[in-house]
Every structure is written in structure tokens, then in C-alpha cells.
Amino acid sequence: MPANYVLLEKITVGAAGASSVTFSGIPQTGYTDLVVKITGRSTRVAVQDYVKTSFNGVTTNLSMRQLYVNGGSPASSAETEIYTPGLPGASATANTFGNVEIYIPNYTSANYKSVSIDGVLENNAVGAYLALDAGLWSDTAAITSVVLTPYFGSFVQYSTFYLYGVAKLGTTPAISPYATGGDTIMTDGTYWYHTFISSGTFTPAVGKNLSCDYLVVAGGGGGGGALASSPAGGGGGAGGFITSTAY
User: Fold this and answer.
1) What sign has the CA pseudo-torsion 160, 166, 169, 171?
2) What's residue 225's pLDDT?
3) 100 CB neighbour count, 10 Å cutoff
4) Alpha-carbon gap, residue 82 to 84, rounded angstroms
5) Is residue 122 part of a domain?
6) In this structure, what are the phi and psi dihedrals at residue 157, rounded to the nearest 5 degrees?
7) 148 in helix, strand or coil?
8) In what helix (H) or strand (E) does residue 8 lie, and over which residues does it extend?
9) Which end of the chain is more exposed for a tag (fewer CB within 10 A), N or C?
10) Is residue 39 part of a domain?
11) How many other C-beta atoms can be found within 10 angstroms of the C-beta atom of residue 232?
């Protein structure tokens, strides 16, 4: 990864899946471009699904030119949406995840926003899919959020999304995380939040003396089922928690 790419947020989909993923509160200073990297899979009952991209909650004024190949001759299309293949569906080889990269230059400018995307469908069988897209959001507003949505299904567990800010070479970004670790990393512009839904390690950056608040929540106990001799079932126990501040 280039030295001027700074990870702003990471989202990993949990067991319940996700109908969409949103990167919000995107910094408006300190970076010139945005890069989104996706490793994903869809619930769609087919070999492939697509990732739609929109900005600031707006789904209008979008256009795209696409060059693609699906195990045969190349083809092209013109669309009024911005999307790309890259999500294996339920009919694709089990446990395969596709790859998508979305590059958004000059995302805070007052010009229309261009987007370049490449997507590769991972499927260990006939019909691998590759696409290159050139998209345009015909709006002069600065991009403050990026919304990613499967075209047909939902994102499955372990689909992972990374948002990078591209800092101008030779500059120190105005906002950058002070540590690594966590299934989700995000910022509200003042604080950084690291959420762990599985085992992991929180590692401060070299030279950083951090003040950290932490909250640990334990899972609750399951409830008891009702029996014929005792029709009342038992309630589940509440999960415990601990919170503190560390330096």
C-alpha cells in the first residue's frame, strides 16, 4: 500500500449480513482522493452480483461506461447507475470472495465527481467476470459519504470494506487513526472507534501515547425451554460489561 494511503475506516459484515454498507463522516480536509477496497460475496441465488455506488445518499445524476468480459468476447455498455461485478453469488464456488476497487479523485472539489472502478468475480469454474468502469456523479457537492449496495442480494458475513484517504505527498494528513485492530474502525472527526466482534489486537502506532476509553460486553445466557410438567420457560441472563479508561 502506498505510504500516503491512510486507512480511515474498515467495516466487516457480521453474521446477520448487510443490505448495504455506508462510509460516512468522510474528512473534508487533509486528503485529495478516496479509495474503497472491497472483498465481498452476495446472497443472490446466481453466480454473480454487482456492487452499486452512490454518494451523500443521492442516487440520481449518475452515469457510467463499462467494459467487461465474462469468459468470452469483451463487450461494453452505457448505464445511468454506477455499479460493477465483483460479488460471487450463492451459486458460485463456496467460500470465494470477489474483489473491487473504487478510486474517487478530487472528492471535495466543486466539479462533477469522476470514479474509476475495477471488479473481478472470483469463481473457480467457467465464467470468470472482469469489468473496468468509468463513472460520473454530475453534482458539485463535496462527497461526505459513500454508500455501497448489492444490486440483487445482501452482503454475506466476512465481506470486508476499507476506506482510504489519499494524502498529498509530503504532507501529514489532518485526520488519521492512531492505532490498528478491530473489525470496524471509524472516526467522528474527533475520536477513533475500534469495534471488535471477534478476537483481535489493538496496537497503537509507534510513538503514540494514547488515552483510550474501552467497553467490554459479554454475551447473555440462553433461556430455558418450557416442559410439559412445567409450562413456564426460564429467561436468559443479561450479559455483563466493564468500562474504563487506560493510558
Assistant:
1) negative
2) 55
3) 25
4) 7
5) yes
6) -55, 145
7) strand
8) strand 5-12
9) C
10) yes
11) 8
Task: Note the pLDDT of residue 206.
Answer: 63
* Alpha carbon separation from 76 to 54, 104, 113, 131, 187 (Å, rounded): 21, 22, 22, 9, 39
How many domains, in total, are found in the chain? Answer: 1
| 113: in domain | yes
Angle at the Cα of 109 from the Cα atoms of 112 and 7, rounded to 5 degrees: 110
Q: 197, 123, 157: which is closest to 43 by C-alpha?
A: 157
Cβ–Cβ under 8 Å, residues 153 and 147: no
Answer whether residue 92 shows pLDDT above 80: yes
130: containing domain: 5-189
Task: Give 210-222 pLDDT, tens digit per residue.
Answer: 778 888 887 666 6
Sign of CA dihedral 20, 25, 28, 32: negative
Residue 49: all three cell numbers together: 452480483
pLDDT of residue 223: 61
pLDDT digits over 152-203, tens only? 999 999 999 999 999 877 666 656 677 878 777 776 656 778 888 778 888 8
**Cα 90 to the center of its chain, rounded Å:** 20
**Would 245 be classed as within a structural domain?**
no
Q: What is residue 30's DSSP assignment? A: S
242 — phi, psi (to 5°)?
Answer: -140, 140
Compute the 3-state secondary structure of the chain and give helix, strand, coil in percent, each to the nearest 5.
Answer: 0, 45, 55
CA atoms of 73 and 66, how far apart (whole Å):
14
Q: How far apart are CA 15 and CA 32, in angstroms?
A: 35
Q: Check which CATH number belongs to the domain holding 165 and give it.
A: 2.60.120
Q: Residue holding cell 474501552? A: 214
